[in-house]
Amino acid sequence: MTVQNVVTSANLFNRIDLVKAASSLDNIEYEPEQFPGMVIRLDEPKTATLV
Question: CA 37, CA 51: separation in Å to the nearest integer?
Answer without folding.
Answer: 6
